[in-house]
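Human: If only I could read backbone structure tokens as easily as an amino acid sequence. Underneath my words sits a plain record pairing an amino acid chain with its backbone structure tokens. Take your time, and here it is.
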Amino acid sequence: MAAAVARVLTRGGVLLAEAGTGTGKTLAYLAPAILSGHRVLVSTGTKNLQEQIFFKDLPILRDALAVPFTATYMKGRGNYLCLHRFANVHDDVDAGSPADRIYLAMVENWAATTETGDRAELEELPEDVPFWSNIAATNENCIGSQCPEFTDCFVTRMRQRAAASDVVIVNHHLLCADAAVRQSAYGEVIPECAYTVIDEAHQLEDVATQYFGLSVSTYRLDELVRDLDRVMTTGEVPDDGGELGRTLNRVDDRARLFFGDIMLTRGLTAGVRPAAAAASSDDRVRVTPGMLEPVNDAGRQLLDALDGLEAAVALVREAPEDLRAIGRRAAEVRDDLRFLLKASDRDYVYYLEWRGRGVFLRASPIDVSSLVRNMLLDRFAAAILTSATLAVEGQFTYVRSRLGIERCEEILLPSEFDYRQQTVLYLPKRMPSPKTPAFADAAGQEVVEILRRTAGRAFVLFTSYAVLRSVQATVERALDYPVFVQGTAPRSTLLRQFRSTPNAVLLATSSFWQGVDVVGEALSCVIIDRLPFASPGDPVVSARIEAVVARGGDGFADLQVPLAILALLQGLGRLIRHRRDRGVLAILDPRIRTMPYGRRFLTSLPRAPITSDLADIERFFARDSPVS
């Protein structure tokens, strides 16, 4: 793999490299990147992988290669403290709850000594501390070189370090966010690099879909109103006869009216938020121009109010830069809302999303292939895209079409692990269809029987919360093993508890299907309830199925099956993380055997022995050799 990476870094072009778990792909691309003499941008799927590269892999290579090089890692701006905003909101937080005052003191002491301003250094600061969004160095709130703290700004210093580094490590969210706002005054953060490695490249399409779309939400309007109110209370805004205050109230009132109408309009919300969905983290429903007609009047009133805010800010003499930034933000929200209300661009799918207490009106690009090619890949003289899951049935056709890659080199490297010796694939003899009500009960019984033979030590991964809850009840009644459930604690906490608790069982959904690393006997079984097909009712998925069909393809065979295969491989990839790991992979969905497309899944899975006999699981753990 290192040789293939070196060739592309020398000649230019694109390399697609699937490197199975255990290959050592991080070292395989970092070594030639460092030796190339070029500045290389490395983009990863997660912050955790960024930190692994920076704190673990690069020190190894610094010793092994004996070549001097510099490196830095960059996160999204919202991870960093904004010194200017921190000074401005200090009094507001100081008057808040006792908990806020404790956390404020923690941030204050840390701010005086930190070199990076990265909130990850504050391990005791809760992820959801209320005031962090008010003091984060987000792009929306940045006033750029006009800021009195610009020289000392942590984002400025981060970018300066990156501009002087040979290896710059970012994540896909920052990579796409930077590309999406690269034309704006303050959006560009990543320094120019002619060479890139995109690790965990299977995630790139989803992240690009998020960042190349548009969104107006209750949160975005609330933050605009809150920030304007804060600027007005600083005393730095010249007296304008109260016009700014009246404008602020109009924006606030009309935003509430607009989103209130959205929530009340029949056809938009009726029947799309059942109790089970409302209790989950989010819910999405596709909308059309006709469905938005009932809220057009309220939308136009909100557009007028945002116009008025932009104009009112422009009329303020000697307006501070904080106020000018709010005027620009009002114009950006207005332009995005105008686009969303038309809902007429056929390259986008429009939908409403509920996330927590927030309501979002969104537009996402249906096909990001040209965007990824033009705004990301074509910017680089050489690009290496790698992951343990890029190929479907041994071919890169699917990922090439989704990411707009026309010409490239390809290399498919098998895993270091011997799955025939290290694993068993268990497929139950009889299971009802996952589309029937009987499936949840049957899945619960199978999970119990499997866990009895593995002594817990398992991830049980689900595609729906409803089945998770049903299986949870069955497992807790039948077994005494410690059971951890997604949603009861932050993901990092659950993983820490799972690793440190003997015979633990973790029940989780999609967010645990990838990016989770548990080495050793603590994880000896991964059970997947059903093949992870993306819901055809999801707005983005349905629009993409329609686009495939419009081009003469088969939406299920050409889109949903390949996508599900890659998701399944990610889920199963949680199990074997080291050459000494051993364990059972279990798939409860009978369609992998009974449906014609099941062969495509089996062909793509690691070459492990297959059994339908629970006794084979016992024998597997009782001896050193696998079942025959």
Notes: The chain has four domains: 2-70+165-211+368-413, 82-137, 214-365, 419-622.
